Amino acid sequence: MRVLVAEDDPIAQELIRSFLEGEGYQVTVASCGEEAWERYQASPARFVITDWKMPGVSGLELCRRIREENNGSYTYVVMLTANHEKGHFISGLAAGADDFVTKPFDPAELRIRMKSGARVLELEGKLEEKIAEIKHSREATEAAHQKLQEELDAAADVQRALLPAELANTDGIDFAWSFEPSIQLGGDAFNIFRLAEDRFGFTFVDVCGHGLKSALLAVTVQHVIDPRDRHTPLLWADSATDPKHLVVPPTEVLSRLNTQFQMDMETAQYFSMLYGVLEADTGRIQYSTAGHPPPILIPATGDIRQLEGTGFPIGIAPVAEYDHYEMKLEPGDRLLFFSDGLTEVANAQREEAGVERVIGWINEGHMLGVSEVVRLLAENVRDWAASGVPGDDVSILLVEYTGSEFRTAKPADTRLTRSS
Q1: Model confidence, pTM
Q2: Given this model, what pLDDT does residue 185 score?
Q3: Continuous segment of H or E residues that includes residue 328
Q4: Which domains does the chain possess?
Q5: What is the CA radius of gyration of the chain?
Q6: Bridge partners of 398?
């Protein structure tokens, strides 16, 4: 171990140097406090022995400077003094001294003081190693967390990519939507898509739970019901006796999904769902629900009300039958599709918003366009939520039937049929 000795008395300096080297220490000597400080700054020593009284920079001042330097490793400071007064020692401790040796020094006493200081430095070294290990572990954890965050961001981008996109030639409808997951990844998935020239499909999926596991199932379901894949018989009839690309009714779509997505008892995952088809040329809409909240009808004239809808969630029962619901929309009528996070969002008093309050929010924007109404609903949800963040995923899809005349002839094979 290297020791820096600051002593202005040549005889005392030589005695201390000779003794320490005999004990196996590497010794650097300085004849004054200023020289000692310069040597310390050039190469900090873990052990410093300094005389109290020196011209210029005193031992007390040298000790203060060493403590203020804070070079990352602890320096053990022993002060040499001929003063035995209590206040003298208190001043030294206040300046940062660790120990004292009286002058003229006793070699046996100095040996004991050095061993005591060595134990302190050994413990300090172990502490520094542990701190370094903790720092390394923390950096590794932060790196792993950053990588996980990047992967979650990528997964969230995939999930957002499956949200409704702009549709070309949307004669007959206007729509807007909002999606706010309770955490970065949500268990909600919804879409609006063209099934045929004058047919639009609506899907709403709400997987039980939150986070990555729920989001993965939601994305999987969305891929399965991707209308761009005409090779799957889910949305179009697969019977050779049916016209090509015949649109499958909602009850049959839910039954097929229930067969395909039976709940795994290990993961205990299931999901609610709503599927509907709108005939844009007539305004007729058919839908079925599997434990999902039915839509809210916002008529151009008349009272706003929630429509009927019930049924087992997908995956709960091996065999499930789903009810068929149908109505005719008039131009200007709107349908609000939503996840239960909209009506079940709770305030600080744990009071849920409920359907009636949501209807009240809709009434606030009865003169607004679909985009403005959706924005208003999203703002009201955030205001109502206890912490400004809903406890569940909140998904909203507002569709208005405009009744615009179709300019393209409608193929006969796009008619929606009832399942037997």
Answers
A1: 0.59
A2: 53
A3: strand 325-328
A4: 2-130 (3.40.50.2300), 162-414 (3.60.40.10)
A5: 39
A6: 176, 336
